[in-house]
Amino acid sequence: MIHPTPATTLPEIITILAGETRWYFVHEVARHSFILEKDATLYCVVLAHISDERAWDLSLSLEGAGSRAYIFGAVIMEEGARLDAQCSVQHSAPDTESHVSLRSALFADAVLTCRGIIGSKKGARGGKGAFHHKSIILGESAQVKTIPSLEICSDEMSAHHSATIDLLSPEQLWYAQSRGISLSDVHRLYYSGFLAHDAQGIPHPEIAENMRSYFSLQ
Amino acid sequence: MSQGSIKKTVVNAVGDYKFGFHSSVDSVYTSPKGLSREVIAEISERKNEPAWMREFRLRAFDIFLEKPMPEWGADLSGIDFNNIHYYVQPQDSAKTRWEDVPTGIKDTFERLGIPEAERKFLSGAGAQFESEVIYHSLHESLSKKGVIFDSTDNALRLYPEIFQKYFGKVIPPTDNKFAALNSAVWSGGSFVYVPKGVHIELPLQAYFRINAENMGQFERTLIIADEGSSVHYIEGCTAPTYSSDSLHSAVVEVIALPGSRVQYSTIQNWSTNVYNLVTKRAVAYENAHMLWLDCNIGSKVTMKYPAVFLRGEGAKAEIHSFAFSGKGQHQDAGAKVIHLAPNTSSTIHARSISKDGGRATYRGLVKVPNGIKNTSSRVVCDALIMDSASRSDTYPTMDIKDDTASIAHEASVTRIDEATLFYLRSRGFDSATAAAMLVNGFATPIVKQLPMEYAVEMNRLIAIEMEGFSQ
Fold it and tell me: Among A124, A47, A119, A54, which Cα is nearest to A83's?
């Protein structure tokens, strides 16, 4: 089975060469810039368990025609944890595609600020960009500030973003507890299912399986 | 002056902007260009205001001087505060009979179709020309029920207690630089009070017209809907097209008391030499329902983010925003909702179209402070870019500090669907007509919130903007 490597062991700037397909499967968050050349493809799966104060800065520059980047991020934030996350994607060439999906689960007093920016330059015709950020709040006084921005300079590309902030409803909680499941187990079941949801979209069976088991073991 | 003598003294090409004409109307008083304490004192003096208002204005002027220009949003570097007339008085006093309005002004509004609209489907109408409201009327049956619909200047004189209780409380001069400017030089605008339990079935309308060159219009509108009442207020605006810029900086305060419903609809169609920098905010108390419907077609630059502060449990906010940004225009519009009470809900739906190099920006905020339980909010922003020279930006912010909030946001930026365009063209529609049909369809979820007569006018305005489109 493939195991995630520490994000800090990767170089800060990574260039994916023309025609190359590269996978990164990392745990924890850091600062990384990916530059994609012509027809390069990047898959990056980030799993993080935050218990203190961290910053996560991910930059994707789709400079080559036909380049594609797929980012899947899943973060558990422990009680009182702080995370300042930024993900910017710049489409600079024709027929580029980006898909960023971040999921976060926050326990009591955790604070998450997430900025997502999809930008396009003139000439990025046929480009497609998507940024999705979903959060669930599992403890009192947890805070989410999410700013998913689009800066699109042309009609030649389409872009979408979405963000949701939700909670474990009292009905769901009551149902699970009425079946004899403890509150901590309810939380674990809920966030492990929620965070691992994107695994089904990862076209790498081993990484997808590891992503599922990573959160169920936390 | 007859309608025939209304001349088209348009410096730059008016193009298809049919409201770009200028009327030759002699004003009673025009303040010298530029802003000073003397100009403000003169405005207050001419209006014969109480001392507290004069002090309020001068204090606001100090705040205006202290506050820097905003460093975010649209480019405001073209505003020359020293090249603006801050007060132009077109006639001696507001009239309640249309026949009494001076001919030149009357002809202007006749040409804009305002009295016709009033006769057909309004409960009351007001018209502001330059800095002053020149006409105001209210259906007699509503006056008998205690409804007040008057110019804000008259309200200060006639209803001092309720006026002072609410004026400047929702948007204080310290709020932002342009709120401070408005507070210093405000003139005109509407004052609406709807008593407890009174429902105004047909809309009240106000129409704002800038006529002079290098003119600043700073109307101040205050709407108070008492418990269990309802009202729909509609405003429209146009201006002549000049080579130099004008400034429109209004402040609108709405107080929706428990159980009331207020809809505030705007069809902004200023000429493309007007900076439109407006602060609009409502406070909604228990179970009140506030709806902003904000349609921005005209202006050079618009920065406007209607806001609702949900202060009472069960209060509800809806903000529907539509922006069309053509050549040389930047529509920086959006919405703000602050949930300050439990069990409150909000919906924001924004749609924008940018064409011919225009730039449309959605800028929004949904905020839920810690301890405010069981709130829900849904934000949807859709943008349509018509050509490769245009631009669309989306900057939503969701600041959620309570663990029981349910928040959803989605946005998209797309181009016009070529397959649908092709289908329409294959059925004999030319490019412009087909594109106008698609754009009207795109705008429909917002425009349908307007009364039918206004929705028809909005669709027509969009069709005019789409003339000449080809792909």
Answer: A54
